[in-house]
Specification:
The complex is a heterodimer of chains A (147) and B (511). Helices cover 68% and strands 7% of the residues of chain A. In chain A, the strands form 2 sheets. In chain A, strands 1-4 form a two-stranded antiparallel ribbon. Chain A has a two-stranded antiparallel sheet with strand order 2-3. In chain A, helix 1 runs antiparallel to helix 2 and helix 4 packs antiparallel against helix 5. Chain A starts with a strand and ends in a 10-residue tail after the last helix. The model of chain A has no long low-confidence stretch (mean pLDDT 90). Chain B is an all-alpha fold and 511 residues long. Chain B is 73% helix and 1% strand. Chain B has a two-stranded antiparallel sheet with strand order 1-2. The chains are: A mainly alpha (147), B mainly alpha (511). The interface between A and B is large, with 68 and 62 residues.
Chain lengths: 147, 511
């Protein structure tokens, strides 16, 4: 598996096309809300206007596409969002400690400079600090363990 | 007299122990993130927004504002000592600040920078105090067409005046406006662009969006880019001689005054910001100097002017935000969003309806600037050490704080997932050189733009000439057109000049 990705002109073209498609979706969806009249603008008029504008600008940005060509590591982009998803899935059910361990464990996969032992210490420290700051300090209803 | 008594009552609020401690925390955190390259003030401000829910609105705003202007002070320390600008606005300070440090005058450079920053900030606060009441009074006469026109100017100027492609900037403003549409339409009650998610009927969470765009995205961008070796704090320059010579002090005065005025003017304009103010002040100083060849080699004028300008600019940016309710850049848009979240209606009525909040905040700017002078000089060694914080601890800590911060607002996991979406979007934008700030500006101003546009047409019975019938509205629209047309023309001219220069240079080159 390649561990880095180069963002060239193609990546920028894909992003511009994505904006173009989004503009089209917003325009069509807005159309269904109703455009209204000039003296009583409907809920769809503003989205339609913005959708059309986004399509025009996306088409203009297609012409400008050049790309930075910089090489970027893929692992952090995969594992850090996965870690945040894991944190979100666990926080209500398994508690702050388990959620934070999952977050940092996946972070370690994405960023090898953080070693597993260091990650474990960091997860425990963050949970303790989070408990003091958010639960004791700000009275946030977060539970540390299962419950 | 009334302004002075209002300001005195503001100091009464800003000097309470809660306000003082919150202001201290804000400027301390601001200096910390300012000294750290790769972590912007906006990321720190969005991280702290959930904390402000537990505070009085005025205290919350004092904290957020303190981070913003504190970051400017922190950034200059790393610029001078290590030639690394902590924020883009401090890049101009590197040009002469670092050569001064390398020639053994780091202490003097930091002293001049700190006092110039304080001077610049103070001038802008004085201008804010003097102009806020009449400007707010003038803005009270604004109707829907004027508000629509001034917001349009803010959006266009913010996207075209920034560095980089104007098309990309405008596309991001429109994207932000679309994000602002998501939720329930206040007029008809229609759910718009909510994609079937009940959680989106109240709109996209500001905290989730900002933390994704400026927090997660920044961490991802820093971790995925090829590693740049950071100088650590070991190489500290001698700070024994902090006081500049009499000649250096005299040479710094006029540039600091000019920089303060330039910064105050630039900061109050929409779509500008401290980086433009700092570079403009530097360029003007070089032009008016009788010895421009000294610039870049450690000229005192080259640090006094940009530092006074960038601090004046960040304070002056509050003028349109607090007096008219129109933010000039993303940080001010965020402050406006924070006010709305606290139930405060921003606009010209703020100064009359919430004088304690308005004048308390203004007075806190001065308190914060004085705290920064006290903090910056004795703690220079600490700020340099900040650069040595291991990134493998800093970044996961930021991610953890983002998770808890986003979740804490509504105890909603959905918002955490929204933050991821914006984090990945922000990361893609960062690598493809699409600016993120206009997205936030568009998102916050979007609902206000639409409301005023619809109201203006409703009141005028669908007559579009309502937007040009008042001189104020017509003036703002004309400026919007200029903001749209002038930057691309200047760009084309600049490219032509560059091409001509290259063509002229090539024949003389040896074959």
């Amino acid at each position: 598996m390649r561990n880095s990705l180069r963002f060239g002109r193609d990546a920028e073209l894909v992003f511009s096309y994505a904006l173009l498609i989004l503009g089209a979706i917003v325009t069509l969806t807005g159309w269904h809300y109703g455009l209204g009249y000039l003296n009583d603008i409907g809920p769809g008029a503003f989205p339609v206007g913005l959708g059309v504008l986004l399509m025009v600008l996306a088409l203009m940005s297609l012409r400008e596409a050049s790309g930075s060509g910089e090489a970027h590591r893929i692992a952090p982009v995969l594992f850090i969002p996965l870690g945040i998803i894991a944190w979100g899935l666990l926080i209500d059910t398994a508690g702050l400690l388990a959620a934070t361990i999952a977050l940092i464990a996946l972070y370690v996969f994405g960023e090898p400079r953080l070693k597993p032992f260091g990650g474990a210490v960091l997860a425990l420290s963050l949970t303790a600090a989070g408990y003091v700051l958010f639960v004791l300090g700000l009275k946030l209803s977060l539970h540390i363990f299962w419950g | 007299m009334s302004v002075l008594s209002d300001l005195a009552s503001g100091f009464g609020i800003a000097l309470t122990w809660q306000a003082l401690s919150i202001c201290f925390s804000g400027v301390l955190l601001g200096t910390f993130v300012g000294a750290l390259p790769g972590v912007g003030a906006l990321a720190a401000i969005s991280l702290c927004l959930p904390l402000t829910y537990y505070m009085e609105p005025v205290h919350g705003l004092i904290l957020l504002a303190g981070i913003f202007y504190g970051a400017q002070y922190g950034a200059s320390t790393s610029s001078i000592l290590l030639n690394i600008p902590g924020t883009p606005s401090a890049a101009a300070t590197c040009l002469d600040g670092n050569p001064m440090a390398r020639s053994g005058r780091a202490g003097q450079a930091l002293f001049i920078v700190t006092l110039s920053s304080f001077f610049g900030g103070s001038v802008a606060i004085l201008i804010l105090v003097a102009f806020a009441p009449p400007l707010a009074k003038f803005a009270l006469s604004f109707g829907a067409p004027e508000y629509f026109a001034v917001m349009l100017l803010g959006l266009i100027a913010a996207s075209t005046a920034s560095v980089g492609s104007a098309v990309k900037g405008l596309a991001m403003v429109v994207l932000g406006l679309i994000f602002g549409v998501v939720g329930t339409d206040v007029t008809s009650g229609t759910y718009r662009l909510a994609l079937g998610f009940v959680q989106l009927t109240d709109g996209i969470s500001l905290v989730a969006m900002a933390m994704g765009l400026f927090g997660i995205a920044e961490v991802l961008a820093n971790l995925t880019r090829p590693e740049v070796k950071m100088p650590t704090g070991n190489k500290v320059f001698s700070l024994r001689h902090l006081l500049p010579t009499r000649e250096e002090a005299v040479r710094a005065v006029k540039p600091a005054v000019r920089g303060s005025l330039i910064g105050s003017w630039i900061g109050a304009l929409p779509g500008t910001g401290p980086a433009i103010a700092a570079f403009l002040a530097y360029a003007i100083e070089k032009r008016v100097s009788r010895t421009p060849e000294r610039f870049g080699t450690g000229a005192v004028e080259g640090i006094a002017a940009p530092e006074a300008a960038n601090n004046a600019s960040v304070q002056a940016a509050f003028i349109p935000t607090l007096c008219i309710g129109i933010p000039g850049d993303a940080v001010m848009a965020f402050m406006l969003g924070a006010m709305i979240l606290h139930g405060i209606v921003p606009g010209p009525q703020l100064i009359h309806e919430q004088p304690d909040l308005f004048w308390g905040l203004v007075a806190s700017f001065w308190v914060g600037n004085i705290l920064l002078v006290v903090l910056t000089l004795p703690l220079i060694g600490v700020w340099v050490k900040v650069l040595a914080i291991p990134r493998q601890i800093l970044y996961p800590t930021i991610i953890f704080l983002i998770c808890v911060g986003v979740y804490s607002v509504n105890s909603a996991v959905f918002d955490v997932f929204i933050a991821i979406v914006f984090g990945l979007l922000g990361y893609m934008m960062s690598v493809l050189k699409y600016p993120a700030a206009p997205v936030l500006l568009g998102y916050i101003l979007g609902p206000l733009v639409e409301e005023n546009f619809r109201r203006a047409l409703f009141i005028s019975n669908g007559d579009f000439t309502t937007f040009v019938s008042s001189p104020v509205s017509a003036g703002f629209l004309l400026m919007s057109v200029l903001a749209l047309v002038v930057p691309p023309i200047l760009n084309i001219r600049r490219k032509r000049l560059l091409n001509d220069a290259q063509l002229n240079a090539s024949p003389s080159e040896p074959a």
